[in-house]
Amino acid sequence: MGNASIPNYDSLPEYFYHWVKEKPNYPFLKQPKGKDWKILTYQDAYDEASRMTSALQNLGLKKGDHVAIYSKNCYHWILADLAIMMGGFVSVPLYFNLSAIQLGQVLSQSDAKVVFVGKLDNWSGHAEEIDKDTQIIRFPHYQGNANATEGLLWDDLVLRNESFEQGYIPDPKELWTIMFTSGTTGMPKGVMHIHKTPIQIIKDDNKYDWIGIANHPEPQLLSYLPLNHVAEKIGVYAIALMLGGTISFGESIETFAKNLQDTQPTVFFAVPRIWTKFYLAVANKLPLKRQRLFFNIPLLSSIIKKKIRYGLGMANAKVVATGSAITPTYLKKWYRSLGIHLIEAYGMTEVCGSITNSPMRDAPADSVGKPVPGCEVKIDPKTKEVLMKSPYMMKGYYKDPELTTKVLKNGWLHSGDKGTFDENGFLKIIGRVSDAFKTSKGKYITPNPLEEKIEKNELIEQVCIAGLGIPQPIAIVNLSEVAQAVTKEEIESSLDNTLVSLNEDLANYTRVSTIIVDSKTWNTENALLTPTLKIRRGEIDNQFGQHFLDWHNDKKNVIWI
């Protein structure tokens, strides 16, 4: 059973009020600016957030009204969200890199009366897409980011409005948030969750001592993944509020490694793309062959591993998790060799986070662990789709009862993922049901297992298996930083070898005919990645599909584009 005591409340704002009372001067939010950190205590945060709540009320907002946040992570993001909860409003957090048109659509779809506009890469044309009835409140300008000039100024509103003694205490069954998905599979969907859910998740984790989050009170956390994403909302924000922790932020992509080193979090979550970047950064400085050599010398091994863990910002990490996309086996094994156990979190926004985890040390590296206590997972015998049932289930998609009924059938949530259980009850995810495609030979290809084998090559950072309607699958790849120090001939030779060893054990129709090296980096701007850094396969087909057959027919094994 859990061995740490968590104060007993039913909503996040109540936990916030508790810590403001218990330890008003404890650091709650830390924002870096160059070498300095701006620090807000729990009391500072309460004073500023409650003034913003008064401002929202003075703008005419009533309990239950929807308020959106459109910003990268920063301390104002948390203050805005607290202000929303303290007034009994519903928080609608949005991905910070939506296009102007997407922003307009999602704001309209969510019925937001107010939108907080903050730290952004791009604000060009966005204001024009926002309905005239939606009030804009803009955060103070963050240096190096886009400059919004529309709407009311945060600082002006804070100065003009009064703080108050007691914020709103919601009913646990009231609507807490509408979280819009990243739109991997089309238009973003607004997932509705109630106040009780995040509380229940962490209390249950404590009760069953499942991941052991609550065994580390006053956690130190770094918030850098989109705060509107369910993993960050639960794994950083809710944990900080419930356990009285400190949230630090990253200043920019360039300073991320330094901010992480300075923070040395005790609880840390990252998506596979980030874990891959860390792995490649280390491999760039200390090639894998030399690592293996050094790791076999006992005294040297422990010194080097300690140094690597510190360099990665993992010196104090007690709970380290991965998720959002499938984490390749080789990555988990490499981190394990450093003494870092990556706990896989497999789930969906619709179940408010994870439905399976792998806290157990004997979890097979190619699995996503076992169902969270109190949750159920089964495999559809016909389609192999993963079906889930959980106490943390969404209340449905906002204003879309049709889609809600399509996804929630007989109490089971249809995940869209394909999976299998092994004989010990560990779940393995094979990929999305919709990812499988048919070649011109009429054979179905499941991309994920092929991609995982290709990704083992440290010259490759991203890979997408494609080939709809052509005889064999092809692999389109993005090279890693490690490849920058290698000649083109060496890269080709390495990719050739990868292709040969990949195809050795495969049936003819599954063999990958060609590797295509795309010289442009895949990112959210060119729509090839989602905001959570997953590959958009549909977009790969859109942008490259017309060349698939030519690439397949080309006599060269490796093609550069």
Topology, pairings included?
Elements: H1 12-22, E1 27-33, E2 36-41, H2 42-58, E3 66-70, H3 75-86, E4 90-94, H4 100-110, E5 112-117, H5 126-129, E6 135-138, E7 152-153, H6 154-160, E8 175-180, E9 190-194, H7 196-208, E10 220-223, H8 230-243, E11 246-249, H9 256-263, E12 267-270, H10 272-285, H11 288-295, H12 298-311, E13 319-323, H13 329-337, E14 342-348, E15 353-357, E16 370-371, E17 376-379, E18 385-389, E19 396-397, H14 401-407, E20 408-409, E21 412-421, E22 427-432, E23 437-438, E24 444-445, H15 447-455, E25 460-466, E26 474-479, H16 488-504, E27 515-517, H17 537-544, H18 548-553, E28 558-560
Parallel strand pairs: 1-11, 3-4, 3-5, 5-6, 6-7, 10-11, 12-13, 13-14, 26-27, 27-28
Antiparallel strand pairs: 1-2, 8-9, 9-19, 14-15, 15-16, 17-18, 18-21, 20-21, 21-22, 23-24, 25-26
Helix pairs in contact: 1-8, 2-3, 2-6
Structural commentary:
- Helix 1 (12-22) packs parallel to helix 8 (230-243), helix 2 crosses helix 3 and helix 2 packs across helix 6.
- The chain has a 5-stranded parallel β-sheet, with helices on both faces. It has a 5-stranded mixed β-sheet with strand order 12-13-14-15-16.
- The termini are far apart.
- It is globular.
- It has 18 helices and 28 strands.
- The longest helix has 17 residues, at 42-58.
- It is α/β, with parallel strands linked by helices and 561 residues long.
- A hairpin with a 2-residue loop joins strand 1 and strand 2.
- Helices cover 34% and strands 23% of the residues.
